[in-house]
């Protein structure tokens, strides 16, 4: 749902003994920054997929709540924006 489908490289997941790294190609949308994400801001990148969620066709615990939920469980999550 978060993917920029105009970018071809796949999302990569690396599992290490002490961490998991998720690499999602592309930059953050619009003026979204890591700091804004940590504060709870979100951006709907794929409104068509969101419309399916709103209709209850896909499971979701609340739009824009994923990072907030993850940070509640693991506040030391490290985010990197490599657009530069």
Helices and strands in order:
Layout lengths: L11 E4 L4 E4 L10 H5 L8 H8 L11 H8 L11
Q: TL;DR of this structure?
A:
With 84 residues, the protein is α+β, with helices and mostly antiparallel strands. 25% of the residues lie in helices and 10% in strands.
Can you walk me through this structure?
With 84 residues, the protein is α+β, with helices and mostly antiparallel strands. It has one domain (12-73). Helices cover 25% and strands 10% of the residues. Strands 1-2 form a two-stranded antiparallel ribbon. The longest helix has 8 residues, at 47-54. The chain is globular and about 40 Å long.
How many separate domains make up the residues? 1
The global form is globular
Q: Please work out how many helical segments DSSP would assign.
A: 3
Considering DSSP H and I runs of 4 or more, what fraction of the residues is helical? Answer: 25-40%
Contiguous runs where pLDDT drops below 50 for at least 5 residues: none
Supply Rg.
Answer: 14 Å
Proportion of residues in extended strands: 5-15%
- State the secondary-structure class: alpha+beta
pLDDT averaged residue by residue = 82
Main β sheet profile: 2 strands, antiparallel
Number of strands: 2
H-E order = EEHHH
Major sheet: arrangement of strands: 1-2
Distance between the termini: 24 Å
């Amino acid at each position: 749902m978060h993917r920029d489908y105009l970018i071809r490289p796949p999302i990569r997941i690396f599992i290490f003994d002490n961490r998991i790294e998720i690499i999602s190609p592309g930059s953050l949308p619009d003026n979204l920054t890591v700091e804004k994400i940590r504060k709870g801001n979100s951006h709907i990148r794929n409104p068509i997929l969101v419309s399916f969620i709103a209709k209850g066709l896909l499971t979701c615990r609340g739009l824009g709540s994923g990072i907030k939920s993850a940070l509640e469980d693991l506040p030391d999550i490290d985010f990197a924006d490599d657009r530069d």
